[in-house]
Structure formats: structure tokens, C-alpha cells
Amino acid sequence: MPSAKPLVAIVGRPNVGKSTFFNKISGQRIAIVEDVPGVTRDRIYADVEWTGRKFTLIDTGGIDPRSDDVLLSQMRRQAEIAMDMADVICFFTDARAGMTPDDEEVATMLRKTRKPVILVVNKQDHAGLNDVLYEFYALGLGDPLGISSTNMLGLGDLLDEIVKRLPPPTEAEADEETHVIQLAVVGRPNVGKSSLTNRLLGQERTMVSDIPGTTRDAIDTQFAGPDGTLYNIIDTAGIRRKRAIEDESLERYSVLRSIAAIRRCDVALLLIDAQEGVTEQDARIAGMIHEEGKAAVVVVNKWDTLEKETGTLEKFKKQVIEDLKFMDYAPVLFISALTGQRAKNVLPQVNQVWEQASRRIGTGALNDVLGDAQIALQPPMMGGRKLKIYYGTQTGTCPPAFALFINDEELMHFSYQRYLENCLRKAFGFEGTPIRFLLREKKKEDTRP
Q1: Which one, of 123, 125, 161, lies nearest residue 143 by Cα?
Q2: What pLDDT score was predicted for residue 375?
Q3: What local confidence, expressed as pLDDT, does residue 170 receive?
Q4: Please, which contacts does 418-427 make with residues 24 or more away whose CB atoms are closer than 8 Å?
Q5: To pair with 149 at 20 to 30 A between CA atoms, which of 108, 156, 210, 329?
């Protein structure tokens, strides 16, 4: 994963407090924290700054060296990838539990990496646990550092130790002016979100399983596309219907993070299962994206599994647009994340819709289009009064927003506003992005910008 900042991985067996530490240091509740082993399954990233030095912290799932469980094995694999990528590794253990055989096996794995390792003894909440530190010397990883993530004891000392072991700053680390496109991969459970994420990254970034709900966190990964464009891809948990989610379940928190990912993204990739077509829940998720004003690409995945005949793609695309008519501005791609079929078209399409969402139109060109639109189709009338559009100006981007100065807001019918939107799209494009209008009443004697 190309990154300007050095990487620091947090590893250890399950339930030793890795995610609690990650959340305290990142300053926000990014990782899900529950007193249940195996809650964190994938690698989760957050940028951190300490004493003027910036680095990226990676939270990982717990390493269970002996388990043959499929998901636990994949969690172990994710942690191994994090260790391979990291510049510094923080090995977390538990003062309350003392040193365990699993700690010894993880230590053996870490010695083979030949990376700088900081041995952290977490949950050292009171002085009575001080003597426990000595038994961890047997791991052969240097001096153990006692902390309490929950009570925020010793965290500054740990951060100091991390910074000491970071590689020297690079030129790329100092250059952070380039915009990184925030790309959220969203959809129902088991439509191939993690498979697409891994396909775009060209690596086993997130866990893939036919078991719905495998992805629990919204997982960020920065990478550079083939053309050098920088992205932060956010693989999210599947969003199910509210009535299918228990109020207090971990899944509820996962879904809230998926919705938050939509809110913070620049472009949303809405994945649709080709075998099922657009479902009611797909339409709901599309509605979230539209209401948040995000640029979007509809990606029909598992296209390789359908039997096709002449015109199948065109018919399917027409049906998708009909089912998501409120989002008919979004381009529709047909891919297979599993085989890679047409997957190379995704990032160029993302770039296109991001460019359109960021576009600014000059006031003169905008008012020329608005004037021609009114000549082609007269504004509506109500009670003998006619809508008058004096002028318009662009007030924002992402999504493109336009203030229309008019004589009376009540005269602007929804259908005419939609007509004006279509005129702007015909003239300027705006593919893949919603358009917002802000209506402002203006007195007749003041009709100049």
C-alpha cells in the first residue's frame, strides 16, 4: 500500500486491548470495541501525529495461532500482512492474564519479521501488577512497557518509543498537498464489496467469505491507481434492513459505520448483485448516497454468473436506471470482482464522476443555459403569476450547488426544477453527481448579481 507515512502495526492475541489503544490514540471511535474475542477482523488504519512526527497506525484482529476456524485463520492472515507492511510493530499482551503460550507463539512470529518490535503489557491498571512485567522478559523481545489503554496510563511513553523506532522522514512524507479521493464501497451483505476492494488494491486487503457479515468495520486503505491518482478506499459492512438488525448487536454498530463512510466519502461505489438485480434495500442505500449529495457509480457485480444473450447488458442497465430513477445520473458498470472482468474500468469511472462533482461553471455560461431553458419551455404560472428566474450562480461543489434568484419560491414546481437540472446536465455533463438548487427570492428592482 503506497503511503507517505510510516506504518505502525498493533498485533497480539485476541482481547488484549489493541482496539482500545487504537481508539484512544486516533482520537475517535474507529474500531469496534467489545469484550469479546474476534471483534476486529480486518486491518483498520488511522493517521496519528506525535511530537511533530506523523505515522499511520494499523489495528489488526487477534492472532490465534492454534485455531483452524476459517474466520480466525483469515484474521491471522490479515495480522501477518500488517506485520509484513509495518515499519514498527507494537506487540500487545495482557498483564491480568500474564504471559500465555499463545503470546510465546506470536513472539516467535515477530522475531522472524526482523522488524523493530515494542513489547507492550496492557491492562496494567494498578501497582499490584508491576511484578507481572518481569515474566514477559522471557519472550526475548527486550524491555516490556506497561500501559493501561483504558485509563490512558503510559500512552505517551509508548508513543515516544514508537517515534524513536520510525525510519527517517522521506520527501513524500512531507508532501501531502495532493487530494486523496475518498472512495466508499457500499451495498447489501455478500454482494462482493471486499472482493472488489481487494481487486482494486491488487492485494488481500480485506477478508473475503461467503458468510454474510464477515466485514464488520469500515476499513480504510490508501493506494495509488495506475495513473498515480491517490485514493482512500473504504470497505464497509453490508447494510441490512433495520428490522433485520438487533438493536444492541455488533452489526448495528457496523452498519452505523457504513453509513458514516457514505457521509465522509467523495465517491460511493454502490454494488448490486447481478443475480438478484436491484432490491428494495439497494434502493434505500442508493437513497442514502443521493441524500448525502455524494457522487456515485452503480457497479453490477457477479456479471460473470449470468447467462447472456444479445442485448442482455442493455436490458439490465435500463432496468437498473428504472429502479433507481432518482439516481439516473449515475453511470452503471458491469463487472466481476472475482475474475477481474471489466474491473479495470472502475477507477477511471471514479475519476470521471469526481471531476464532474468538483466542476465549477462560470456565471455567464450558467445564465446563458438558464435563459435558453426558459425560452425553450416557459416557466410555470400559478394564480395568474409567472415564475421569473432573474439569474443563477454556483455556490458550491461536491455536489454542484446553484443559487437561483427568483420572484417567488412557491411558483417553482418540482417538475420545472428537474427540467432545469436536465438542461444543466445536457450543457455541462455532471455525470455521476447529484445537483442541488437553492431558491432565493429577489425583489424585482434588484435583479443583478
Answers
A1: 161
A2: 95
A3: 65
A4: 419/373, 419/377, 420/370, 420/373, 423/369, 423/370, 423/372, 423/373, 424/361, 424/366, 424/369, 425/329, 427/365, 427/369
A5: 108
Element (DSSP H or E) covering residue 328:
none
What domains, with CATH codes, occur in the chain?
7-174 (3.40.50.300), 181-357 (3.40.50.300), 363-441 (3.30.300.20)
Beta strand segments in 239-387, E: 267-273, 295-301, 332-334, 381-382, 385-386
How high is the pLDDT of residue 443? 60
Evaluate if residue 250 carries a pLDDT over 70. Answer: no
d(CA 62, CA 80): 11
* Contact (CB, 8 A) for 228 and 244: no
Would you call the peptide bond into 189 cis, given omega within 30 degrees of 0 as the criterion? no
Evaluate whether 292 touches 211 at the Cβ level (below 8 Å).
no
| 96: Cα separation from own chain's centroid | 35
Cell numbers found for residue 138: 522471557
Please, what's the largest Cα pairwise distance for the chain?
Answer: 90
Is the overall model pTM greater than 0.85, yes or no?
no
d(CA 150, CA 19): 10
